[in-house]
Amino acid sequence: MLDKCPICLNSDVQVSRPAGGHLAYDIECKRCGNYRISETAASMYLKNYGPLYLLSAAIRNRFEREGRIELSTRTFETLLDSVSKPSDPIETIDLLLQHIFRKTGKISKSVVFTENDYPLLFAEDVNEFYHYLKLAEKLNLIEPKIIDTSEREYYLTLEGWKRIFELKKNEIKLRQAFVAMWFDSNLDDAWENGFRSALLECGYDQPIRIDLQEHNEKICDKIIAEIRQSGLVVADFTGQRGGVYFEAGFALGLGKPVIWTCRADHIKDLHFDTRQYNHIVWQTSEELKEKLVNRIIATVTNMPLK
Question: Which long-range contacts link 161-168 to residues 24+ away (Cβ below 8 Å)?
């Protein structure tokens, strides 16, 4: 039986075996959150998949949004790509404000932070984490109430709430998902009961398929504008349309999350440049919807604030 977290190496954990004879561990870690990890993954040299503090941060942030997650040898290959890591101090402080907002939702409520919470901000250690708290305090975005040396309680200030509202306005665009696909009538059911249905279920209230949009611009300009404004791009390569390759590549260049799909009878025709990506292979609209929902939940973290 494990006596410490295999991710952050913290010994303040609770470890149990899942029911049903699964060869795995259920772990409750103060730093990483709650997760299930296979025996094989737990015994691996996980540093091969990235710095342990970043792996811990990825797991903790997904746990905060999704609840307990399941980890396997395959999961670790894409774990760091499954989260949106802050790229500068401003984005890190925004992440802090969003966490407080999600936990409270009211100006009168506060959040208690401990030294085990540094993975929330992708910090390397608790000192870096406390440094970001001090920066946010100096910017008058949060108001502290010191409890003791190991716990700190913070409220969002009025300026912090203003910043949250700014972020929520920007997040509205994340509710839009752009679907690049072949505009052929035999894919109408896949669009309505596969792509569109899955995206609506996952909270995207503006699934966009460009041939269904009324506009006066050149179609290429409209496509570029809609991709720029979308929080997610789904690229379906059924029919091997050149436009889909262009749109997926353009989205990647913008740093947008892209989910790759293809109907089973067309998968053999994929261009070799894109075969490296993990495509959802589907046969029916029902199968497409189920797989797409699962992929979005597993890999897309920049969802709108709720």
Answer: 161/107, 163/94, 163/97, 164/97, 164/98, 164/101, 164/305, 167/94, 167/97, 167/98, 167/305, 168/304, 168/305
Are 141 and 160 within 8 A, CB to CB?
yes
Q: How far, in Å, CA of 76 to CA of 58, rounded? A: 10
For 36-65, give the DSSP string.
EEEHHHHTS-GGGGS-HHHHHHHHHHHHHH
Straight-line distance from the first to the last Cα atom of the chain, in angstroms, rounded to the nearest whole number: 38
Query: Which domains does the chain carry?
Result: 13-82 (no CATH), 89-156 (1.10.10), 172-299 (3.40.50.10140)
**Is the pTM value of this prediction over 0.85?**
no
Dihedral sign, Cα of residue 224, residue 226, residue 228, residue 233: negative
Edge-first strand listing for the sheet containing 111-114: 111-114, 151-156, 142-146
User: Residue for token digits 């399941």?
Assistant: 70
For 12, the token pair is 């303040």
Beta 24-29 vs 232-236: how paired, if at all? Answer: unpaired
**Token pair recorded at residue 147:** 């409890």
**Are the beta carbons of 228 and 254 closer than 8 angstroms?**
yes
Q: Is 303's pLDDT higher than 60?
A: no
Residues 6+ apart with CB under 8 A from 120: 57, 60, 61, 64, 95, 96, 99, 129
Taking the C-alpha atoms of residue 299 and residue 83, their distance in angstroms, rounded to an integer, is 7
User: pLDDT digits over 135-156, tens only?
Assistant: 999 999 999 987 666 678 999 9
